[in-house]
Amino acid sequence: MIRVLIVDDDPLVRAGLAMMLTGDEDVQVVGEAENGKQAITEAGKTGADVVLMDIRMPVLDGIEATRTVRERYPAAQVIVLTTFDADAQVLASLRAGAAGFLLKSTAPGDIIAAIRTVHRGDPILSPTITRTLIDHVSAPSPPQATSAQAALGALSDREREVAALVGQGLANAEIGAQVHLSVATVKAYVSRMLTALDLTNRVQLALLVHEAGLAPGDSNA
User: Fold this and answer.
1) b/e map 136-149, b = 16+ CB within 10 Å
2) Contact predicate 196/202, CB 8 Å
């Protein structure tokens, strides 16, 4: 069973999500929270595998709650819930460690599929979504770009090649096929890079790649 914590300040949204998820045999709703502070407490208390996290909430917003949950309970994957698909706060949540985001209007089946995906350790950001966020929300400042380039510059050529493909939103199998490496080797490369760069997941790595302008389509690529 995948243990899910629902975090939203709207009780109707929480009730609707809980009702929808309860009907799935692989998912168990283990708790609810109405603000970020409660989310942190409930994440520890319930041992949730996946947290559905609203962004705009009283007491503590979803961005800071995501950052704290990921720091304290790294096994818990966070999916951000939002009403906007190109919002600066969505990007901030991803930088805080969220594995991806969903619109609140997403079909029930797609929400369940996303929960399964992040539970496996995979992000739910398609290349199109990543590109939209980078293009419309986050034009990196020169200091950001310089810092990102310096961080990635410390990697080997092969690691930067793999990182650039992560920046495109490709899965490990797709990366392996492009650079002629096994999935296990690609996974090892990604894991090593996350540790070296002090990142918590591949979404953050993808964002760093775009800040550095190393992904195809970036101005510096």
Assistant:
1) eebebeeeebeebe
2) no
178 class by beta-carbon count within 10 Å (0-12 exposed, 13-18 middle, 19+ buried): middle
Amino acid at 11: P
Query: Are 85 and 43 found together in one domain?
Result: yes
* CATH number of residue 104's parent domain: 3.40.50.2300
Q: What is the pTM of this model?
A: 0.75
Domain co-membership, 13 together with 120: yes
Residue 198 CB burial class (10 angstroms; 0-12, 13-18, ≥19) = exposed
Give the number of other Cβ atoms within 10 Å of residue 22's Cβ: 11
19-69, pLDDT tens digit by residue?
A: 999 888 899 999 999 999 999 999 999 999 999 999 999 999 999 999 999
Structure tokens at 165: 């493909």
What digits encode the pLDDT tens for the residues 17-28? 999 998 888 999
Within a 10 A sphere around the Cβ of 91, how many other Cβ atoms? 20
